[in-house]
Amino acid sequence: MPINPDAVGTTSEPAETSWTSRDALLYAVGVGAGQDPLDRAELPFVTENSIDVEQRVLPTFAVVLPSVAAAFGSIGTFNPAMLVHGEERIVLHREIPVAGAVSTTAEISAIWDKGKGAVVEITSRSHLVADGEPLFDVVMAAFIRGEGGWGGERGPSGPRNEPPERAADASVRLTTRPEQAFLYRLSGDRNPLHSDPSFAALAGFDRPILHGLCTYGFTGRALLRELCDADPARLRSVEGRFSSPVFPGEELTVEIWRTDAGGVFRTLGGDGRVVLDSGACTVD
Question: Catalytic residue positions?
Answer without folding.
Answer: 189, 194
